[in-house]
Please model this.
Amino acid sequence: MIYEGKDISQEVKESAEVCVIGSGAGGAVVAKELAEAGHSVVLLEEGGNYTTKDFNRSVIQTFSRMYRGFGATVALGRPLIPFPIGRCLGGTTTINSGTCFRTPDKILRRWRREFGIEGIEPDQMQPYFERVEKIINVAPVNSGNMGKNGEIVLRGAKKLGYSGGPLMRNAKDCRGCGVCVMGCPSGAKQPTSVNYVPMAMEHGARVYCDARAEKILVKNGVACGVDGHILERDTNKAKHKFSVMAKVVVLAAGAIHSPLMLMKNKLANSSGQLGKNLRLHPGVGVSALMDEEVNAWLGVPQSVYVDEFIDEGIMLEGAFTIPPLASPMFPYFGEKAKDLMFHYRNIVFFGTMVFDETRGRVRPGLRGLPLITYNMIREDVKKAARGIAYDAEIFFAAGAKKVFPHIPWMLEMTSVKQVYEILRRGLKASEVKAMAFHPMGTCSMGIDRRYAVVDPYSESFDVKNLFVCDASIFPTCLGVNPMVSIMAFANRSADYIHEMKLG
Amino acid sequence: MSRGQVQLGVRSERIFKDLADRIIPAGGPDYPGAADIGLTDTMLKQVKGIPFARRGLLTVLWLWNISPFFFSLKFKPFSRLSANEQTMYLESWERSRFMLRRFAFMGLKALFMAFFYNDPRIWEKIGYKEECLQKVSGEEAEGIEVAP
Model:
């Protein structure tokens, strides 16, 4: 059973072997694996429990219910980078595009070489990837649900000889409704709320929604529980206290809120690295107007990739979306914007994900909110400019008549020659119109407690039995969508907890 | 203005409506604009439950109204600019060399557009349908159309 705020009328006191904070890609995996291994588990989720019947296409309702801060988390700096994060059962897996990549071998080897992390060689991680992929039903996007947006991108890429193809996704019988970011209306996408969380519950895990963890209890340098409040869902006001006593505490609140919680509790920061090293995978987008009718909202929104430029530190990926989210991205306002939106049926969209070397930071800000700073370094800005140029080139090759590169000094392009102008002139950081979806790196793992927050199995160097299991442990950016990596590393940590802490 | 929505006062409401009209103008050959569908009233109703929404909105509108004194040579508040001048003033924000002005304009535009294009009446006009690419069967089919 899932206990929700509305069902709880008094203070909650729980006791378990493991208390997991967060039900997203990291927390749900740890909860399921440890519950299945026979341990008692309490899983806490700050957001609400929403299922297929609650999902709809109203941006206002969806963003206020299922996104943190109405989807308006922003990294301050040059440029400003908004990045939406989930706050509901399943965390961001409920509202992401469902793209699945394993951690690239090159990255795993880099972490061993540069950070001394052993036991994560590609062949050692393979069983974890396989296990996760089986549970969340990872399969490639097929031609039946790809949609024309993806087809047009691949058509352009093929003409130019660029490598790419359909993405792998965690979906079963996807119907291509095109609204993954609003929660899947057909129940095809496989967030943790439909697999790992129910599996954990089958093995006895108790799941609390609307439960905001606030304090990690520590005794003699060992984590021993979590305190917090049950919330009124509509107002977010604290209703009742809760307290969970546990032998092991697993923090999986994401790369912004995990370090924030540790900082607020003044824990795990002897290295001084907590909250630093924030990576975002900044994304830039390009839209284009085709002569043909595309109806790009039909089909998987993020269905294809172009990996021709991986060595330059960019991956071309992008998701088409519904009118209220797409319209602000397009250039212009007034009659011109109305005219462009009138041709919504003919618009296509693609993007670029930058493998960032920029290091941002998370700190506690006003009213308990995170203060996130991130100033894109020159190298990353160059990658963003190149990505925009390559996206535009692909659209011209696919037959686009007008391309909108979302650059302040070039609102629209009508000739492929302008691609070279972008490459030649480049961009300033302040000219990049970016969004991000993959915060990571803020509690990075390593072998040296002077430079890392957690050890190679995600346990805090400072507080025994306190584990961090989310994207914040990654010491560098991944260069691919992080969901499967988070899950595989969480599975690995769960095995360690089972064998070394609770066995 | 009706009960059940955030009350702004006459001047602030006028600025709010002017902004909506400039960003999504009324009429036109293809489909309606902000004024035609009562966009600002819808927005004020939707934000009613949000704490500090009224105070925040009033502050933003007040700052916006006096901003032409600092960012243009007109020496008039936004509310006293003609429709054409208001459009030109917004363009100066959209194309500004200063990142913060451009981002502030993007935020403003996003606010109005997100509400406007969230309206099913507008979806119909631009050809967007609440549908899926492939057939949905069983109970899940309820309310979900399939593209022809």
Summary: Chain B has two domains: 10-117, 123-148. Chain B has a mean pLDDT of 86. The radius of gyration of chain B is 18 Å. Strands of chain B lie at 131-132, 145-146.
